[in-house]
Predict the 3D structure of the following.
Amino acid sequence: MSVCRATKRNGEPYTLPSKGSSALCWAHDPKNAERRRRGQSRGGKGKPNKDIQAIKGRLWALADDVLEGRVDKGKGAVASQVMNVYLRAVSLELKIKEQEELETRLEELETVLAQKRGA
């Protein structure tokens, strides 16, 4: 079984098995670009939005509880700080996923460009 002929940006070869006559793995075969793009566009979009909506609701409820005297201001401040840290982590996670998707797309474009130059 042959190995995918695509290379990583650092020049190392990929180790995935190639499929068909293209000598590329499924992930690098340009024939699968649209399917990959559709899968990437769905990935990771539901959970962070739900989490953010839930945290926003909890922050509003916490603010009301603090203002009405049902929650101590100090405890409310600590709870809101913890939720803020969580929101920052979600934001960072989204940025990492976006960067990974962009890197994948760039590698695909580089592969297609290299194939066109070699043809």
